[in-house]
Amino acid sequence: MAAHKCNIIMLAFVLCGLTYVFVRADIEDTNHVKDAESGAVDIAPKTNIGASLQSTKTEDQTQAAEEERQWEAETNPADAPSDNKADHVHDTMQHLASRPAPYAKDQTQEAAEEERQWEATEVKEADHVPDTMQTPDVPPPTPAKDQFQEELVIRPLHSGDIYASFQFRTMWDTDFLRGSKVSHYRLFPKSLGQVISKFSVRELHISFTQGYWRTMQWGQPFLPSPPGAELWVWFQDTVTDVDDAWKELTNVLSGIFCASLNFIDSTNTVQPSASFKPLGLGNVTDQRFLRYAVLPREIVCTENLTPWKKLLPCGSKAGLAVLMKSEKLFHSSFHSQALHFRPVCQDWKCKSTVWELRQTLNVVFDLHTSGQGKREWSLFKMFSRTLTEACPLASSSKVYVDVTDNPQGELFELSPTTPLLSQAVVLGDRRTYSVYDLTNQATFGQTRSLNMLLRWRAAESGDMLRPLLHGERYVAGYGLQTGEIHTLMYNNHPYRAFPVLLLDTVPWYLRLYIHTLTVSSKGRDNKPSYIHYQPSKDRLRPHLLEMLVQLPPNSVTEVTVQFERALLKWTEYTPDPNHGFYVGSSVISALVPSVVAMDTNSTRECPLFSSFFPCKEESSYFMRVYTEPLLVNLPTPDFSMPYNVICLTCTVVAVGYGSLYNLLTRTFQVEEPSPGLAKRLANIIRRLRGVPLL
Amino acid sequence: MGLLSDPNRRRALTKLLTRLNAPICVMCYLAGVAWFMGLAFEPFTLRTYMSENAMGSTMVEERFPAGERALATGREFAAHKKKVGGMPVDWLVKTMQSRGLEVFTQSFTRKLPFPDENKERYMVRGTNVYGILRAPRAPRTEALVLSAPCSEGNNNNQAVGLLLGLAQYFRSQIHWAKDIIFLVNEHDLIGMQAWLEGYHHTNTTGGDWSPLQGRGGSIQAALSLELSSDVITSLDLVLEGLNGQLPNLDLANLFYAFCQKIGVLCTIQGKLQRNDWDTTSGYSHAAQTMMLMVLKQASGRPWGDHGLFLRYHIEAASIRGINSFRQYKTDTTTIGRLLEGMYRKLNNLLERLHQSYFFYLMPSLSRFVSIGYYMPAFGLLAVILLLRALDLWVQLGASPPGTEDGVAGGEQPSSPGVLSILTPVVISHMTGVALYTLPILSQEMAVQHFPVSETEAVVLTAIAIYTAGLALPHNTHRLLQGEGTEEGWRVLKLVALLYLAVLLGCTALINFSLGFILALSLVPIAAFITPHTPKALSAAIMVLLSPGCTLLYCVFLFQELQETPVSLQDGWMLFLSVISQGILDHALYGSLVYPLLALLIYPCWLLLWNILFWK
């Protein structure tokens, strides 16, 4: 395995080199050779950090005033814009003093943009406030350029573990589609930008996950991902040869992320017809432009994290990313890093689009292996770092702590406390968060560092609401000839049925007997309303099975299909054939009825008129659940010494058998003396004439 | 090849073989037995060695500290068990949960075909409790199992305590790459069967169990722990599983390596290893150990809770703590460290255990006999059958005048009809089917008419049918038209010989011990039985060497080897219980020894019996 990984790294290096050459050529082409070492956007963050460090002191003073106003601003949105604007203008002035000229303009625009952004989040955050809300009637003066936001959500889990989810959003205001060559990159990583424009990618979703999300213990993740690597890409409809572009793209990405994405080929690529729809703008939903592949075996480690961190404008030098120390991130129960690229609306009128790059990193720290018996978490204990500043390039930088189950602090104690609260509907559940705004210097307090501490009061935390949907998968049977794949889908909703889309990708060497496909729930047949099945072709493409199943309330739906294990050619076995072969996770996508609608004995104060009909966005939400990957043993020849012995033995047996067979089938005849030469000649002539022989 | 194709040389060869047939057969038999006995002689065996690289070279440090706490947990478990009067399910669930495991339960019910008098159970209802330690950053594809049975009385409380202690200790460690399943199974093998069938969603024996909720992917290895005292003197390793299957030898090596490292006395078949191989007592010690393994393997029953894992290609063994009157004692902490070490190494596995042998015999824990060494012993016995068959074939071919090469013998008018051969074959197999089905079917009737219990009824019916089969030759002849000819018995014997050779050959490939023991008793009678031998003497010998009597001898031999000799009376009672256990093993776990004996071996012996009484 080590050798295997090593190979991958070597390959990745080679590909990195190739990418570099390609990037280099591009740079020279546009005469913008700046940073020959990385060939990317590193230069911008560096100068910015310097600038921001110089300006911290002055900012401090101005932000002191802002501190008191913060909660007011929250409750009194009408005042907020002007106050904030003043602050930001002030900030901008500071920045102007210490920054190179091109940035000044950006910053002003950014400030304007940010202000609007704040307003927008305010609408969402303060949705319990009766709608005295007004959208600002002053439209943004100029279209916004690139901007960057970062946030960290910390959710204490009922099991005592803790879930930390980072999200970094870089907006890229460019138009690489119209043939105009993009040569200048500010916040958006150049290495990725060039790849995206070269291959005309419309949407790209890539995730690297180590571990399996335990839905039953941890609830739903913000962004689900399957174990291993997952990649799905929507290409622009201008791409003519999608397969070719896909192949090249996977190889380039493999170099960028130092991962073995180059193992993606036609045998593990599928085109799902319904499960993976574009998440961004656009109306092309023709699956011809979609490619989806999973590598369940991919092992995620530091070497994948480093290139991922490099894509951030601040790198891991400032802002939330300083927390990402790999020795801590990989000392956890679950680690998942992802990157999502998609077109989104630029403003609320949605007249033009910008490209959004969202980098997420989810990690779950385990209580039991953390070394101490105490149920206590702090930023330092999690990451062995504390926060000291926001990324200077970020227009917003916030830390959220989920305090929904802890309204009066009876479950755990959170220090330092923050006056800022925000509410959001996440995955169909109304959650309350304590917000720490890192752009506000007061957050860091006297010690100039933020180290949140969560200390449990009770040894046992209350019961978690059962997740409404979860899936499970296993291989049944024994022996090496056949087997059966069971996929279980649980609908834990007490009275609501809902449909789910199940996507199964099975490698060709498990030959599915599709006639044995059964779908049953509560002991009865459950006929799928839609089935899309693409049979496999040996060594060319995998099985693809997609179906739409209605899950009855409070039930388990079981999908079973039998398969036969193929005998591979001897060169097709992996170096460790007795480990088994992986089958990727199946994907369950669903619109799940919201738990908010289930919430009947709500103690929360809310007007009666607002709560009779469950409103639309709360009545159901989209959810994707991945099942476990499978490890299937195939019939494997013994590749060691006895194999040779068997070959030899078989040869000996064949010789023995051959002689016996020879003996049994031979007919014994009395030998006649051979005719003379003259007679033979005569016979030849007679044969030619067609006369009976002598 | 030339030797066989040349008619003259071939004739010379066959003449030699037919003339010297009897002496060659006797020689082969003696050589086979001698070879087998020689296997236990140390210079002829190989020293065990670790084949799996992933387990061999890596270092593991064992630090399990909490033996005393584990014992306390064990006592607590015992108290709760006593209070509930069975498996304390709720307590176990709570305890495992508090140790940070994902806990699930499985309930099962099982109605035995007839009451098991050894373990006093008929309607079995129970619950398995298992907790899964999820490995950090692992995608639930691989798992290891540690199980401890919840036995009746005061047995195995310490095992459960240690299991829970290990669970707690393992949970605080970060380096697990495979999920670890801690299983407490009720009603030993029945619970284990239910759990395994639930885990793999199969149902081979018609049990009734509730489906499992949590799984950990494909199980790579399993250990079953049996511990009934706070301190022990030695640990015994049990390998023999269902149908004589054995786990990969590397598992035994692993156990042995850690016993050596930690300094725990370890035994196999309850026998310590001795160094004096060159003395007679040293040799006989090794031979006894090996014979015990052969007998256990031949029985085809699982000798510990691990035995059922092997069907699913999961390497498994049982570790049994033994407390005897020896001075040197080992405490629970040390056993915990041993298990920790073994699990750490198993956790390092990249592939399933496959590097080492699956077919072996062990004369001691550090020595093994591989399949290449023991198969010739069986081969020497099996070749006798082929030689006799060849002799008969030549005789059959030579007797009708005119046919030189003996190929056309079957078409001669004097040859017996197909019917005269087929009839005894069919009838003896019908008897076999009766022996297989009737004991269980007719138990109710037997209980109504005779003053016996259900179990006795089944066993006695089996013995009755077995004995009734002896009267078969007289009935067979009534169905045949005319006299049995000289040709007739020869053809029948030829058929019987080849049939037996195939049967024993196949059996020996799957379960060497069973094949060898059967060959040892059946080959002599198969080789030398004719209608012309003195009837009374031959009949006595045949009955004494019949499969049933072989079983009886094996029971006595086993007791003798275990150093617990029994009187004739007790031996007979043991024999009866062994029969009932054999039938139960087949019904409950799918052991194949009973159907093999009843449906194939016994009819084959009946064919030979028929030949003896050929008219």
Average per-residue pLDDT of chain B, rounded, comes to 88
CATH superfamily of the largest domain in chain B: Zn peptidases
Structure class of chain B = alpha/beta
Number of separate domains of chain B: 2
N-to-C terminal Cα separation of chain B, in Å? Answer: 41 Å
Average pLDDT for all residues of chain A = 76
CATH arch. level architecture of the largest domain in chain B: 3-Layer(aba) Sandwich
What is the count of DSSP helices of chain B, taking H or I runs of 4+ residues?
22
What is the β-strand count of chain B? 12
Rg from Cα of chain B: 27 Å
Region (Disordered) (chain A): 50-145
GO biological process, one term (chain A): attachment of GPI anchor to protein
Signal peptide (chain A): 1-25
Biased composition (Basic and acidic residues) (chain A): 82-93, 114-130
Structural account:
- The complex is a heterodimer of chains A (694) and B (615).
- With 694 residues, chain A is α+β, with helices and mostly antiparallel strands.
- Among the domains of chain A are: 142-180 and 187-400, no CATH class; 467-599 and 614-632, Sandwich (Immunoglobulin-like), CATH 2.60.40.1170.
- Chain A is built from 13 helices and 26 strands.
- Chain A has an eleven-stranded mixed beta sheet, with helices on both faces. A five-stranded antiparallel beta sheet of chain A has the order 15-16-22-18-19, with no helix packed on it.
- The termini of chain A are far apart.
- Chain B is an alpha/beta fold and 615 residues long.
- Chain B has two domains: 59-354, Zn peptidases (Aminopeptidase, 3-Layer(aba) Sandwich), CATH 3.40.630; 417-611, no CATH class.
- Chain B has helices at 2-5, 7-19, 21-38, 53-56, 67-84, 89-98, 157-171, 188-200, 249-262, 280-299, 332-347, 371-398, 418-441, 443-449, 454-468, 472-479, 486-510, 512-528, 535-544, 547-561, 568-589, 593-612; strands spanning 46-47, 102-116, 121-133, 142-150, 179-186, 208-209, 218-226, 234-238, 265-268, 315-322, 360-364, 367-370.
- The chains are: A alpha+beta (694), B alpha/beta (615).
- Chain A binds chain B through residues 1, 159, 210-212, 214, 216-217, 227-228, 296, 330-335, 366-369, 371, 472, 474-480, 484, 486, 576-580, 582, 628-633, 638, 640, 655, 658-660, 662-663, 666, 668, and chain B through 1, 4-5, 7, 100, 102, 134, 136-142, 171-174, 200-202, 215, 217-218, 311-313, 350-352, 354-355, 405.
- Chain A: Residues 82-93, 114-130 have a biased composition (Basic and acidic residues).
